[in-house]
Amino acid sequence: MFLLYDKRYPLYAKRGFTLIEVLVAISIFAVIAAAIIAVFIKGIEVWENSHIRTNYREEALLFLEGMEKELKNNITLVDSGFKIEAQDLYFTTLKEAIYNIRYKYDKENKMVYRYTARYPKPVSIEEPIAALKNVKTLNFTVEEEGINLPAAIKIYLTISDEGLQNEYSFLRVIDMPVIR
Is residue 58 part of a domain? Predict the structure, then answer.
């Protein structure tokens, strides 16, 4: 009752906020909004980086799976050969038809090229297809010897992405369906 008639605190002043209260509320809101925006931006960066990494891994795994499928369909013919070197693989496979296939690593361009020619043409006639890019290393080794062909082939692959400077290594041992 005493404050109702006090001239220093009129009734209309009790309904609003003071300038200091408004400034404090705005500054608290600005700090919280800045923190939320920073977290949101960082989340987008992490998502983009993981998306890039996933694409590189998927591309390499699809390459290895395709190569494995072709090697498991390998056939031995009298005049076609099976040649394996450290960075070069040549074999004959059966798809819809018989194909000579060669995978060759080009260290200078950091690419794996896939040569395909319908049997009996040699693969050197056909234009190569870039099967995988950003390859740092690719090594083919015979894991286990068979009678005419290797019983198992080890493929060691390392790829690097351009922007993030990361390397991804893959090791795949392919068991060849041959009589041991």
Answer: yes
Task: List, for residues 107-158, the tens digit of each pLDDT value.
Answer: 998 899 998 887 776 666 667 888 888 899 999 988 777 677 788 889 999 9
**Is position 109 within any domain?**
yes
* Residue 111 CB burial class (10 angstroms; 0-12, 13-18, ≥19): middle
What pLDDT, on the 0 to 100 scale, is given for residue 180?
A: 44
| Cβ-proximal residues to 144 (8 Å cutoff; 6+ apart), any chain | 150, 151, 152, 180
Say if 116 falls within a structural domain.
Answer: yes
Q: What tokens appear for 91 in the block?
A: 């074999």
Neighbours of 157 (CB within 10 A): 23
Q: Which of 94, 134, 133 is nearest to 116 (CA)?
A: 94
Strand order in the sheet with 111-118: 83-85, 88-94, 98-106, 111-118, 129-133
Number of structural domains (the chain) is 1
Domain presence at residue 1: no
Tokens 């692959």, located at residue: 157
Q: Using an 8 Å Cβ cutoff, are 103 and 113 in contact? A: yes
What's the predicted TM-score (pTM) here?
Answer: 0.69
Contact 52, 164 (CB under 8 A): yes
